[in-house]
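Page 42, continued from yesterday. The earlier attempt failed because a stray header line got pasted into the input along with the sequence. Redoing it now with the clean sequence only.
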Amino acid sequence: MSAVFASPPRGPTSPVTIHELVARQVALKPDAVAVIYRNTRLTFAELDLRANRVAHGLRAVGVGRGTVVVLYMQRSADAVAALLGVLKAGGAYLPLDASFPPERVAAIAADAGAAMVLAGSSQAGALPKSLLVVSYFADQPDDAPPCCNTPDDLALVLYTSGSTGEPRGVEITHANLFNNLLGWEQTHAISGMGALAQTAFFAFAVFQSDVFRALCLGITLVICPRETLLSPRALLKLMRCEGTGFLEIVPTLMRTLILYAQQHGEGLDFLRCLVVSADRWYVREHRTVARLLAPNARLINVYGLSETTFDSTWYEGPTDWLSPNELAPIGWTFPNVNAYVLDDALQPVSAGLDGELWIGGAGVARGYRNRPTLTVECFVPSPFVEGDRLFRTGDLARLLRDGTIALLGRRDQLVKIRGFRVELGEIEAALEAHPDIRQVVVQPHETASGKVQLVAYYVAAHCCDPGLLREFVAGKLPDFMVPSAFLPIPALPLTPTGKVDRRALPMPEPVVVSTPLSASRDPETIVAVIVRDAIGDATLSSTESLSERGLDSLGMSAILVGIEDAFGIVTSEGDITPELFESVASLSRYVRRSLAEVTP
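This time it went through. Structure tokens are written below.
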């Protein structure tokens, strides 16, 4: 069997621009709900009107075909209108989440040669004065500006982590996006499944694919608020209430739903299609989720990268012939996508042998923004299909006995954190910029629950407090790239050849829960156990900052579930604030107050 998967074209192969596809849905169903976010419900006609105003405003300040506009904002209905408005103006948008440090936003905007930053009022004030920052455009015409694009024009620039210490922008065209939509509709017919729940970060590839799938196929997009994502109970309730039938979710968030569903006897029977993507997903988890779904629901494991426009392969089928601890197969290619398992000489390897996965076809992006040398290195002419290009994924793979593709690991130091691709070298470069740091190595450690935590091992010229070091790097990198722990060591261990011996680095302290929940009824003691277990640090004091100890959104979710299980307190969305998660003490005060309110 050859280690080459060539997908013949299926259906129409003449793409159109994304905003033209959306316009067709506006004409077909103007009064249907397009976007839901909190109390905002926009019809397709209302969304189109808002996007037209943005487009006219952007054209008035010089945005046109090929212009890159940074969107620095939170996930919301306004963000969807803004990105559609950039496309209608003829430009390409570059999404950056509102949680990103302003310094990083400025650096990416400069690297991309962006004309301006479109930001909400709360984000605009934090940006450097050197950037051209504009807000929403209200006093503009409501009609759509004339389309000035072709399908081969740039639509999206999506930045990913870079091994050299600098992030790099992937250039994605309208034609790339069109093929992605074509693939989903032809293989899974998702337009008839009900609403689409959106759970991903604004700057993440899954957010973009969710938005385009919904708007271009006439599906209602339900944007789940951040605080809802922290509460499995609230997330399940929202999806049920809004008639969600389609959900794409990263494994880390899926695991919190699995745990909650198992503990509370809930199911996912309302979903018609559940897609797990963007990170390591094991056969045992795949089987568990299948039992939570309705018998006729579809459970799909998807593989893809930004450089191949999100989704390249998919697997749906039995797993009884696989070991529970194996990674779930990534299956077969989407339409007009080619997958190859090759050796170092770019020759196909036989079934059962290891090779590197290369992706070709209509999903392969233009390349890296303003990085011609790197583009030539990573995007190469295909030796198999004339005129095609291949992207080197860096993922090791092999063919399984049923003809599907299995992932084995990475060739490099790239890891996945909460679904994001993270190059360890970029984090190390940010830490090395600190004047007291001589050497640093960042190493991932996988917990028993499957969560990947980053640990920074550093050699300092002077005593360097881990908390101050965390604060330093948090000003340069988004929160998912900030290590959970910082361990000072006298010297980095080396191999006989002089390279860093990562296997000899000391393991971080394991979680030791000192007091079983059943042994105490003191709220603060119980809360402390819950928080220490969620963070993975048994030495945490009641007043220490949880953010400085690496608390992330998944840890917050675990804490809320633990509080509900221990005390019967269902945390309302209004109570989920940064202040609540300041420390064990702040959470304990909340628990005591909540208990007092229900005590007669």
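Notes: The longest strand covers residues 389-399.
Reminder to self: strip header lines before submitting.
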